[in-house]
Amino acid sequence: MSNLTSTNTAATLTLTTPFHLPAGSVVAVDVPRDAFLEAYASSYHEWIEGVVIHMSPASSTHQRLTTYLLLLLNAYLVLDPRGRVISQPFVMRLVRSFREPDLQVILNDNPHQFTETAMLGPADICVEVVSEESQTRDYGDKFAEYEAAGVREYWIIDPLRHEARFCRLQDTGRYATILPADGLYRTPLLPRLALPVASLWQDPLPDFYTIGDSVKAMFSDATDD
Predict the structure, then answer these.
(1) Long-range Cβ pairs for the range 113-118 (8 Å, 24+)
(2) DSSP 3-state assignment of 140?
(3) Among the four 19, 59, 153, 162, which has the fewest Cβ within 10 Å?
(4) What are the pLDDT digits (tens) for 28-73?
(5) What is the pLDDT of residues 168-186, one digit of tens each?
């Protein structure tokens, strides 16, 4: 709770009422949506009800994990073209916030509009790779926002704890944590996908060719069944 000076392109004013800040490094408040899109969206910022927060530069671990999952999901969607995967920075516009998930999976039957500059509504799967500075945001703010907005699955990949949390939206509108079976995470949104959770903590992570072979095997195994 804080009193802050707000900044936008038109004026500067002081908030005199109690204000609950989102987690993150706040750089401006009372910023209109259009001003955020013009001035901040392309440079690793997010917007939450007029508050702009800056996200710290990604660590090497964060970049490698995000790239691994991007390659794996892309390879899957080449063989089963039911959607697309988009990496940060790319805005997902929710009712009260503009977030930039590390990865967004947007299926072809998603009822919301996908444009060249933003996803206008919730993606089907959002993936966040946790860093030291993003823990409160990823486990708290984004969990609540993605759940309320109807993001069907939220994957929290935490290399700090070697923990992967797969949250799936239930009919109640609440997330339930889905435990991988036999070390593999499977989702009805991507029916043949079998993500080996232990691979997330490998050093080095699987390379481009290994990823391709493993995804091909997922489809081969499914055919054999």
Answers:
(1) 114/84, 117/37, 117/41, 117/91, 118/37, 118/41, 118/90, 118/91, 118/92, 118/93
(2) helix
(3) 162
(4) 888 888 888 888 887 778 888 888 888 776 789 999 999 999 999 9
(5) 999 999 999 999 999 999 9
Q: Which residue, chain included where needed, has tokens 């790239």? A: 67
Contact 177, 166 (CB under 8 A): yes
pTM for this entry:
0.85
Among 181, 183, 135, CA closest to 158 = 135
Question: Rounded distance, CA 118 to CA 130, Å?
Answer: 23
Residue type for position 183: G
Query: What is the model's pLDDT at position 17?
Result: 38
> Domain coordinates of the chain in residue numbers?
5-54, 60-224
- pLDDT tens-digit profile of 133-151? 889 899 999 999 999 999 9
Q: Among 95, 161, 88, 154, which Cα is nearest to 124's?
A: 154
